[in-house]
Amino acid sequence: MNIGELSKLSGVSSKMIRRYEDDGIVAKAKRTDSGYRVYQDQDVQIFKFIKRSRELGFSLSDTKQLVSLWRNKSRSSAKVKEIAKQHVQDLTEKLNETRQMILQLNHLVKNCHGDSRPDCPIIDDLESH
Amino acid sequence: MNIGELSKLSGVSSKMIRRYEDDGIVAKAKRTDSGYRVYQDQDVQIFKFIKRSRELGFSLSDTKQLVSLWRNKSRSSAKVKEIAKQHVQDLTEKLNETRQMILQLNHLVKNCHGDSRPDCPIIDDLESH
DNA sequence: CTTGACCTTCCCATAGAGGGAAGGTTTATG
DNA sequence: CATAAACCTTCCCTCTATGGGAAGGTCAAG
Predict the structure, then answer these.
(1) Which CATH number does B1-75 carry?
(2) How far apart are CA A64 and CA B62, in angstroms?
(3) pTM flag (> 0.85)
(4) CATH for A1-74 (3.20.20.70, 1.10.1660.10, 2.40.40.20, 1.10.1060.10)
């Protein structure tokens, strides 16, 4: 199949299929004589794997390692778990930062009249935190 | 004062001070005959304002509007509140997405042996979600 | 009058995706 | 068979926010 059909079947855009190939996340696709990329049915699963990895927030770098581990039948699950645990830790840090922002902003928003007058605790906070 | 001292006093890097000027978030700085940017004491507060806005996660575009509203003595607090509320909503969406990722990942990590064997529920999820 | 610490602008890189141009190929239709 | 539409190719640009670093000018102290 061509890249367009693979894109439809896997849910990954043609742009990103080429990008993943450039980044070495997947092997280079075979080409027709005229240069078109040619894919097999099993390639759909590879790109679905990548898509799921991205949905879980893994970076392309992590994803590259995970694809490699997936392909490696003598992998250790410890390695996979290590990548996932580190990712969870990173996400948790981001979560806490975002939560802090929301807490502070909600406090300020709650105390802002939101009318035509200029007085505003949000501006006050920014001005003299 | 020069840009270096302003940077120290405000906590904003020289790089970003120039960038904010290029983006029109702050007015163009006066220059010496030799081209050095020259700042006043009150400029420290402007860049601290911007820094705080960034700490609360506001985009440069939002920050630009907030600086403008801060400067506008006949502003309506409603406009400020609108920007902040939209931002809180965006942050909340991101928070929920991140929370979902963490929940799913934690479930998978918990069930992964993390030993030398290849069997791994994390890989299984990615392979056939 | 040289050295070092400033400053200037300009280009590049990051991460992950999309837009779009310029041009070649394939397929369907008249 | 010819032509048009729908593909495909590579290449460069854009977004967001920030930093690195080069090449070169300026200023102050020794």
Answers:
(1) 1.10.1660.10
(2) 35
(3) yes
(4) 1.10.1660.10
